[in-house]
Every structure is written in structure tokens, then in C-alpha cells.
Write a structure and sequence with these properties.
single chain; alpha+beta; Alpha-Beta Plaits; globular
Length: 207
């Protein structure tokens, strides 16, 4: 499978995890969809992907991908330069903070030497199967490694049934997640890869 230079896994994957406290799912959804609309209307400078756990603890994960530390710094500066966006996101995040436990954030590096099979491209797949382990990954998938040695292994699936089967094959650490278009700010190529799925972005754009 040929992948263009623009169609590679990010060299740096920012992983931001939020655990929703019980009973706050509906309120969380409302705030997160508002954040997505804010990012759409105020020109979020960088795509990000939101996913929700279907197995294991109820969590929402967000991913940003960067080609280099230089791009990571440039995106940081672009956010800082968009004052209306930062102000709106800060206010919305304060309301969301009471609905979740303390978030966990990590920056992981792509490990092509551990990756097996066609690499996962950020923004592709309707479901993700993710394994988190301190051991060297051996069951296939696209691997990112955090500074403390934790490995995150990604596999994609187009249906819940396919995802459950992949998780069973991957082992006990594997969890199933659903990609949430209404909690994401997609890149153009994500939408082009699955336009029917991404018509749910932004919230209120359902057809």
C-alpha cells in the first residue's frame, strides 16, 4: 500500500484523555458540541479528533498530530494568536471541567519499527481499537510511544462488530472506541475519505 508524504502517521501524537463522571454524559455532550461549533466558527488552526470509549471506563480521548516539534510550536503560536477562539474555549472548558475527572495528557512518538501492517492515518476509521501497555507491542497495529515507555497501539475498524473482533484478537489491554465527528475538527482529507460519516460535522449539519 503506497502512502504519500502527506498521508503518513504523525511523528508526534498528542493524546488528551478525559473521564466523564457518572451522570454527566448528556451535559458533557452539550458542552463538547458547543466547543466544536466554536472551533468551526472561529477557525481552529489545527484539526483534532475526538473519540469515545465503548468498552472499559467511560472516557473521551482527543488527538492532535504533528509532523515535527517545529510544527507543534507553530500550532501553539497560531492558537495563542486567535484571541476570540482562546477566550471562548477557556470559558467552555471551565464548564466542562466540573463534568470530568482531571484530564491526562501525553505526547507520544510514532514508532515505525514497532508498527505492523498498513499504518493508521489520523482521522481515518469509524472505530478505533487501542491497546495501552508498557510491554513491547507484538500483535500488530500502529504504535506510538510515550516518554515513560508506554505504548499506544492503534487499529481501525469500519463497524462495531469488526472492532470487537479486532479487540478480542489484540488481547486484554485492547479497548474499543467510536470516532465522534461532532466532537472533532476534521482535516479536509478526513472528510474526503468518508464524506457520509463526516457529514455529522459540525453539530447541526446532519442530513
Amino acid at each position: 500500500m503506497q502512502i504519500s508524504a502527506q498521508e503518513q502517521p504523525p511523528q508526534i501524537l498528542q493524546i488528551y484523555r478525559e473521564a466523564i463522571t457518572p451522570g454527566n454524559e448528556a451535559a458533557y455532550t452539550a458542552v463538547e458540541e458547543e466547543i466544536t461549533r466554536i472551533c468551526f466558527e472561529l477557525k481552529c488552526p489545527h484539526p483534532y479528533l475526538g473519540i469515545e470509549s465503548l468498552t472499559g471506563p467511560k472516557e473521551v480521548w482527543f488527538f492532535n498530530g504533528y509532523r515535527s516539534t517545529a510544527e507543534q510550536q507553530q500550532i501553539h503560536d497560531d492558537y495563542a494568536g486567535n484571541t476570540p477562539l482562546i477566550a471562548a474555549l477557556t470559558e467552555a472548558s471551565k464548564r466542562k471541567a466540573v463534568l470530568t475527572r482531571a484530564p491526562v495528557e501525553v505526547f507520544a512518538n510514532y514508532r515505525s519499527d514497532f508498527t505492523r501492517g498498513a499504518p493508521w492515518l489520523l482521522g481515518r476509521g469509524r472505530f478505533l481499537v487501542i491497546s495501552v501497555t508498557k510491554a513491547n507491542p507484538t500483535n500488530g497495529g500502529t504504535v506510538f510511544e510515550a516518554p515513560d515507555g508506554t505504548s499506544f497501539t492503534f487499529r481501525t475498524a469500519s463497524s462495531r462488530e469488526e472492532a470487537d473482533a479486532a479487540a478480542a484478537k489484540a488481547g486484554p489491554e485492547a479497548r474499543v472506541f467510536a470516532v465522534r465527528p461532532r466532537w472533532s475538527t476534521p482535516a479536509r482529507e478526513w472528510i474526503e475519505s468518508d464524506p457520509v460519516f463526516w457529514q455529522l460535522y459540525p453539530p447541526g449539519n446532519e442530513k
